[in-house]
């Protein structure tokens, strides 16, 4: 079975602040402008909704109002997807063709490629761990969620510049497989996009 990443360039702090914001105006905008998307999601998860899971809109409302959340852990996925929807509304979708689809331990392979280049501040595998979900949200098995804060971005840029300088001085680059190089370069393009905008970072979801 394959997985995919959805990666967004956004103001991380501003996006996280939407959780628990009680912004009913935002909810109405989402319902008015993206009602068809919500309906499609409800159709896709119709079996789970019949079993008591919240609808897409109900999950969004709970995320923005800090609850109430279903006590059934099997329903937590809806709140994860609701948070992803908020990220998609406030951010810009980043090209991720090196990761969608992917199988097995591909994310850890790319992380090793980043480490081989001296880049430890960011990790694509973090997008599957859910350690960066806003604290009040139930923790779903899927989607996974991780974030690269502006501080992570700045550090990653510094690490990459240091590696480039070392390669220029030595004339030798770490040996990486071509597909790993391509994926690492895609990660670095996300880092550069975020680094070019004050306060911006990256939030990614694995599903």
* Strand line-up across the major sheet: 2-1-4-3
Rg, please? 18 Å
Which band does the percent of strand residues land in?
5-15%
- Number of beta strands: 4
* Global structural class: alpha+beta
Overall pLDDT score: 95
Shape: elongated
Give the terminus-to-terminus CA distance.
11 Å
Outline the biggest β-sheet.
4 strands, antiparallel
Helix fraction, binned, reads 40-55%
Are there runs of 5+ residues with pLDDT below 50, and where?
A: none
Please write the string of helix (H) and strand (E) elements: EHHHHHHEHEHHE
Question: How many domain modules?
Answer: 1
- The helix count comes to 9
Q: What does the secondary structure layout of this molecule look like, with pairings?
A:
Blueprint: E1 5-11, H1 12-16, H2 24-33, H3 35-44, H4 46-50, H5 56-64, H6 76-90, E2 92-93, H7 106-116, E3 144-148, H8 150-170, H9 178-195, E4 200-206
Antiparallel strand pairs: 1-2, 1-4, 3-4
Short summary of the structure?
By secondary structure, the chain is α+β, with helices and mostly antiparallel strands.
Q: What does this entry look like structurally?
A:
By secondary structure, the protein is of the alpha+beta class. The chain has one domain (5-206). The protein contains 9 helices and 4 strands, in the order E-H-H-H-H-H-H-E-H-E-H-H-E. Strands 2-1-4-3 form a 4-stranded antiparallel sheet, sandwiched between helices. The longest helix has 21 residues, at 150-170. The chain is elongated and about 60 Å long. The termini are close together. The mean pLDDT is 95.
């Amino acid at each position: 079975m394959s997985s995919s990443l959805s990666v967004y360039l956004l103001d991380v702090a501003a996006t996280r602040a939407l959780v628990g914001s009680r912004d009913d105006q935002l909810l109405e905008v989402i319902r008015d402008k993206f009602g068809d998307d919500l309906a499609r999601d409800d159709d896709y998860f119709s079996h789970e909704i019949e079993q008591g899971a919240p609808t897409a809109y109900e999950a969004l409302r709970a995320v923005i109002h800090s609850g109430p959340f279903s006590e059934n852990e099997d329903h937590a996925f809806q709140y994860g997807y609701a948070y992803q929807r908020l990220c998609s509304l406030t951010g810009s979708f980043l090209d991720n063709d090196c990761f969608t689809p992917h199988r097995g331990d591909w994310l850890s392979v790319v992380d090793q490629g980043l480490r081989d280049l001296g880049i430890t501040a960011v990790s694509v595998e973090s997008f599957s761990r859910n350690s960066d979900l806003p604290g009040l949200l139930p923790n779903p098995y899927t989607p996974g969620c991780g974030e690269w804060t502006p501080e992570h971005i700045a550090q990653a840029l510094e690490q990459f510049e240091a590696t480039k300088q070392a390669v220029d001085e030595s004339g030798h680059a770490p040996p990486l497989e071509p597909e790993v190089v391509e994926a690492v370069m895609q990660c670095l393009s996300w880092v550069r996009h975020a680094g070019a905008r004050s306060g911006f970072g990256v939030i990614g979801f694995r599903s």
